[in-house]
Amino acid sequence: MRWEQLPGLLAHHRVAARLLDAEPGQLGETLLPCLIDTHDGQPLVLLAIDGQESRLLSPVTGGELRMPLEQLRSLQRGRVLVAHPAGQDDWRAAGYARAASGHWFRDLVGRQWRRFAEVALASLLAALLAVASALFVMQVYDRVLPTRADGTLWALALGVFIAIGLEFLLRALRSVVIEQGGKRLDLALSRSLFQQAISLRLASRPGSTGAFASQMRDFEIVREFFTASTLGACGDLPFSLLFLCLIAFIGGPVALVPLAAIVLIVLPSLLCQPLIARLAREGMREAAVRNALLLESVDHLETLKTNRGEGRALATWQRLSASQSARGLRSRNLNAWIASWTTAAMQLAYVASVIAGVYLVFAGELTAGALIACSLLTSRALAPFAQVSQLLARWQQVRVAFEGLDELMQRPVERPEGRRFARLASVDGHYRLESVCWRYDAQSVPVLALDRLEIRPGQRWVLLGGNGSGKSTLLRLLAGLFDPASGSLRLDDRELAQVDPVDRRRHIGYMPQDIALFQGTLRDNLLLGGGDSGDDRLVAALDMAGLGDFVRRHPLGLDLPIAGNQSLSGGQRQSVGLARLILQDPPVVLMDEPTAALDQNTENRVIRTLEPWLEGRTLVLATHKRALLAWAEYALVLQQGQRALDGPLQEVLSATASAARRDGARQEATTA
Fold first, then answer.
1. Are residues 318 and 207 in the same domain?
2. Engineering a disulfide at 524: which of 61, 104, 378, 520 sits with its beta carbon 3.0 to 4.6 angstroms away?
3. Residue 566 and residue 306: Cα distance in Å, rounded?
4. What domain range is 404 assigned to?
């Protein structure tokens, strides 16, 4: 990891950090302790400075040592990292004198204020230098030509050449500054959006992956808006007033012409904004639907083919494409009309300024040189407004894209701003549920409603019930992936929602029904959470999961390339999921149909090998397979999201068998 990435990473964990260009001896006590990067790659924590000696802590060894400041300076490489816990609101102050909460995008842009200040300064200097060419022409026509003073001509020409060169350099430097700032904004914005996407609560994630991907891709529209052309036009806009004032100073009433032209240039774009907004909104919605259809068709191509759905999918695609193409054509025609109108308005303004100036020349109130200077300054004054007119045509598309990104950033996340979670160093695995209810949204009926349930440490429970009875939902609640809509869900006498998500993931191992594989190698997919487990440990976990022989026989072994879920069979993917769980080594194990796709021999081997591994762990298992009941001691039967029966496994099985016999006898009697 790069040193510059540490402040952003620490900010995610509620630690305010910054990098300083300073030597250890220059740091005050308020900045200690701090982290110092060294040439050997082993960072040191500077605890204190006692005269010419430093007191250090090595994060690698954990030991404390003393070192002369001169030696520490020779070891130092680059900047030092100072950090402190981020400030927290105190309830005693309530809302008194509280600063207004920032907006995610405004905060990111605000960090580039130095760049914007540099752009504004460069724009001001470039605008001042741009006046030189107009003044040059005025002086040539009014003073050089009547007197044939070629010496004055070359003196003026030298000055204007210098001004043009400086203006060129300033505008080139301004573009570089804007692009550098845009790059930083691009990186910060993309990081914030992706971090938000992977931090979403499962209950608040978007329903369609394709539409969500299209929404994320709209980030490109917002990013491209903040480029040199856009910010350059905005930077030049305030200085158009300078040109207008100069026109008024030189030509007097001639300044009314560019003022009227500004209205003619900008007004059509403003009047067309509602139509442009509607076209942009509808077009982007259809683009999202098209993208969703494309991803769904490719991901489920086998289902599409076996059910002869290609024709229907193609017809839907053509309908969406035709509608989007028609709206796109209408939008492009409108933008082309606005661009043509802007060009015509600028030409008319130039001609009108010449005509108005000619009458002033006839009246003796203006010289010929001043007339030409005013016409040149008119073009300069209107150029930024012409660019703004084009930007207004794009603004609605940017606005719609930004609304989609803003909606994403407002979705609930696992780690809300200002929330401090409880840390758990260890977990016994004691669950207690009371009046727990969960639903998809506030208006829907409860998917799960449990009046009570207690799972003691080390107990092994199996969840039984038909499809849609709430088994998977209960497992997600126990894993902390869902929060109850009401009721109490406690782990070791602490509300599970209070526990830091990091500790939930570390202490609670959850294996879902569908095992997802990611682009990379088999080793990468086993170590999704990072770490440096050796190959022996990985292969041992695969042996327990029933995939070890396959890996040993394959020429690439753990370097087997994985390209999504199509690279391995369903049973092999489940073995990878089991191996991930084994490598995590959690005290609480939650499994949702862990052997549903395994063949009988592999399933029996997995049951035998995992039996000793599960010893002493809290286990909650959802299954329809009778063979997995060998792991369980207790059972919970769910019907329509509610507890129908629970208790020791054999008692529950006997009760359900008796109930099944009674139902069968009742049906036979009814049939007879």
1. yes
2. 520
3. 17
4. 108-409
